[in-house]
């Protein structure tokens, strides 16, 4: 079980500040487990409920409501004590796709950038947001144009930002 849970934080970190839905969370976890063990058969309903009790104990995780129109500052935080009271099914019924699991910023930043404190302090907020957008789209890729639109950045600034990230060997 520890092997499965060790994937939670890095995988959710790569989803960014919006986090991921419960459905996406199980997909990411199953995919990662399958990569590590070809004989892995998936996570059934009973295993999900069992693992969920341990997921709720991970201090790095938080829960909020986020729809497509909200900015990160507008997400409605859901206290852990409220999440613990609900079952997985009731969370899905009550909140649907708006319920998100996310990794708190300080932990997410370390997973995306690495544990180099000096490097963490040298990365600007815009550079971090670009890196986070690239990480979130790791499986399908994202164009510079799409990053610029998504982050409302001037393409020339984005080019400079990408160059710095390459100099830091972060991409």
UniProtKB/TrEMBL annotation:
Cellular localisation: Nucleus
GO MF terms held by the record: DNA binding
Segments passing through the bilayer: none
InterPro entries (UniProt xref): Tfc3-like, TFIIIC_Bblock-bd, WH-like_DNA-bd_sf, WH_DNA-bd_sf, WH_GTF3C1
Any one GO biological process: transcription initiation at RNA polymerase III promoter
Domain General transcription factor 3C polypeptide 1 winged-helix: 1-74
Tree of life domain: Eukaryota
Domain B-block binding subunit of TFIIIC, chain residue ranges per copy: 125-170
Pfam families per the UniProt record, alphabetical: B-block_TFIIIC (PF04182), WHD_GTF3C1_N (PF23704)
Keyword annotations from UniProtKB, A to Z: DNA-binding, Nucleus, Phosphoprotein, Transcription
GO CC field: nucleus; transcription factor TFIIIC complex
Protein's name according to its UniProt entry: Uncharacterized protein
Organism: Neocallimastix californiae
Organism lineage string: Eukaryota, Fungi, Fungi incertae sedis, Chytridiomycota, Chytridiomycota incertae sedis
């Amino acid at each position: 079980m520890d092997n499965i849970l060790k994937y939670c934080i890095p995988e959710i970190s790569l989803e960014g500040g919006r986090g991921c839905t419960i459905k996406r969370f199980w997909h990411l976890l199953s995919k990662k487990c399958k990569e590590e063990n070809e004989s892995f058969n998936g996570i059934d309903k009973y295993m999900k409920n069992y693992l969920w009790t341990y997921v709720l104990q991970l201090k790095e995780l938080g829960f909020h409501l986020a729809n497509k129109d909200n900015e990160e500052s507008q997400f409605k935080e859901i206290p852990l004590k409220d999440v613990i009271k609900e079952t997985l099914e009731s969370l899905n019924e009550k909140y649907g796709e708006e319920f998100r699991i996310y990794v708190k910023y300080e932990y997410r930043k370390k997973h995306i950038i690495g544990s180099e404190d000096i490097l963490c302090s040298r990365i600007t907020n815009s550079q971090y947001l670009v890196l986070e957008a690239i990480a979130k789209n790791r499986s399908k890729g994202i164009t510079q144009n799409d990053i610029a639109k998504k982050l409302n950045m001037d393409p020339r600034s984005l080019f400079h930002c990408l160059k710095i990230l390459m100099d830091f060997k972060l991409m």
